[in-house]
Design goal:
Layout: H1 2-40, E1 52-55, E2 62-65, E3 71-72, E4 79-80, E5 92-94, E6 100-104, E7 107-116, E8 123-133, E9 137-140, H2 146-153, H3 174-188, E10 193-194, H4 198-206, E11 257-263, E12 273-275, E13 286-289, E14 306-309, E15 318-320, E16 323-324
Parallel strand pairs: 8-12, 11-15
Antiparallel strand pairs: 1-2, 3-4, 5-6, 6-9, 7-8, 9-16, 10-16, 11-13, 13-14
Length: 328
């Protein structure tokens, strides 16, 4: 019996060798085929080539084109192609100084002037106008922090009332924000950093929405995205603790007011439709946007809240967020 068992095992082993060899060959061939198909397959939808913006040579309109794929202007059918050397912009980047930026796409928004009576009970649109932002730009993911301020301005330079490395730097005048920008540009050897214009800031804050705020029309949700008198305990807070808005910006409302580049004026957007409005040419006060920890969230309408102050004015609820001009 033992000899019979040994004989059967030997026969099975002899028969199994070619079968196993065939299986291994098929596995190898299948793996090679999968690699070939993977190499030939198109990129996944999420990894589609990034478009760049090209100005039409016929009508001047901005068009989105993918490098290597010519097309026609959406407005006048002029043939277009991406100029050599024009590269797609990254969705986000971190500067050599550790400042994080997100890409704000070109686009348009509708600015509405709202009338509200003495009791805050009646609101109506007095007038509205379209504002176009013709070029993409980068905006700081966060407010400039105290740690970033000291890294550029040097030890002993932190003027903030509410100390904290990642709290927003505050008690900053518009002139001091410009000095920070000047030193940062010198440090990195490029004149790229600046304050956003009021129109750029508003376009970014809306994130392409036409609701009262970028997230919805519900005022009570505003405190989920920013620090106001109702939830701040009368202090600033570290940046990035609240929910981000759809384009990746944090604290776009609340925490501290954000200086922008514009002079204040009675009507910054005086025409029915404007493209890249820079604001008034001169003035006595500069504009700050977005609200602060010591102001109530109630009463904000359509994401618009601004103050104005002289360029040398400082306060514990005034800070800033940087813009960055891309090469394209």
């Amino acid at each position: 019996m033992e000899s019979l068992i040994i004989l059967l095992v030997s026969l099975l082993a002899i028969l199994a060798v070619p079968i196993i060899g065939l299986m291994i060959s098929r596995l190898i061939a299948g793996d090679r085929e999968r690699r070939r198909l993977s190499a030939e397959a198109p990129a996944e939808t999420g990894a589609a080539p990034a478009a760049v913006e090209v100005n039409c040579t016929g009508c001047g309109a901005v068009n989105q084109l993918i490098p290597g794929q010519p097309g026609d202007c959406e407005y006048c059918d002029t043939p277009l192609s991406v100029p050599a050397g024009l590269k797609p912009l990254k969705a986000a980047f971190t500067s050599p100084s550790g400042l994080e930026f997100v890409l704000i796409p070109a686009g348009a928004f509708i600015r509405r002037e709202i009338f509200q009576d003495d009791f805050g009970e009646k609101k109506k649109v007095l007038r509205q106008r379209v504002v176009n932002i013709s070029r993409p730009f980068y905006l700081g993911k966060y407010l400039v922090t105290q740690e970033q301020w000291v890294a550029v301005m040097g030890p002993g330079s932190n003027p903030s009332a509410f100390k904290g490395r990642v709290n927003p730097v505050e008690n900053i005048s518009w002139n001091e924000a410009q000095l920070f920008i000047q030193k940062l540009n010198q440090k990195e050897g490029r004149v790229k950093y600046r304050l956003p214009t009021e129109a750029e800031w508003e376009h970014a804050s809306r994130a392409g929405s036409d609701t009262a705020w970028f997230y919805d029309d519900k005022e009570e949700l505003l405190r989920e995205y920013g620090w106001f008198a109702e939830n701040s305990q009368s202090s600033t807070h570290p940046v990035g603790l609240k929910k981000p808005h759809p384009w990746g910006l944090y604290d776009i409302f609340g925490n501290v007011w954000e200086w922008v580049a514009d002079w204040a004026g009675a009507d910054s957007y005086s025409e029915e439709e404007q493209t890249d409005p820079p604001g008034p040419a001169t003035g006595s006060d500069r504009v700050a946007m977005g609200g602060a920890f010591d102001r109530t969230a109630s009463g904000y309408y359509r994401g618009l809240s601004s103050i104005c102050a002289q360029p040398e004015y400082r306060d514990r609820d005034l800070g800033f967020r940087l813009a960055f001009s891309p090469d394209n």
